[in-house]
Amino acid sequence: MITLKGNNIYLRALEPEDLAFIYTIENDESIWNVSNTQTPYSKFLIKQYLENAHQDIYEAKQLRLAICLNNSDEAIGLIDLFDFDPTNNRAGIGIIIHQDNKRENGIGSEALELLIRYCFTHLQLHQLYANIGTENEISIALFTKFDFQLIGIKKQWNKVDNEFKDEALYQLINIK
């Protein structure tokens, strides 16, 4: 896979050394409502996942990339393509910057811009979509910055802390 490099960050394939980082993210209950996670993941399962991370996106139907600062190989976040559908040229996209002090300083914007460009240029996708909780103002601002359009609201879609929350569907169509 080509390295996706920006001014401040780059996106890279997952490595076995990312086990502890992914384990921490997948087991962080404070973000489970964003990732629709219901149960903890074992290191064993994540290790198996990493052993299969070499699969081509056409085979796995997903792609997870580590977000790293240009001066480091340490992952600070993850950006995902999921539900990759080459027949209809579309995929879902999600992003998480794990450390609070790394959020809202342009890292997410740069990562999203790099992945959008990769999707439309190299994967020849026609559209991307994102599912975002309607209360997640930071993510809504990030995706709408890149012209993702609100398509609809899924009412009471996710149960969070014993309360049902709405989820918005945003879509970006490649018109080039």
Automatic annotation (TrEMBL):
<dbReference type="GO" id="GO:0016746">
    <property type="term" value="F:acyltransferase activity"/>
</dbReference>
<keyword id="KW-0808">Transferase</keyword>
<keyword id="KW-0012">Acyltransferase</keyword>
<dbReference type="InterPro" id="IPR016181">
    <property type="entry name" value="Acyl_CoA_acyltransferase"/>
</dbReference>
<dbReference type="Pfam" id="PF13302">
    <property type="entry name" value="Acetyltransf_3"/>
</dbReference>
<dbReference type="InterPro" id="IPR000182">
    <property type="entry name" value="GNAT_dom"/>
</dbReference>
<protein>
    <submittedName>
        <fullName>GNAT family N-acetyltransferase</fullName>
        <ecNumber>2.3.-.-</ecNumber>
    </submittedName>
</protein>
<feature type="domain" description="N-acetyltransferase">
    <location>
        <begin position="9"/>
        <end position="176"/>
    </location>
</feature>
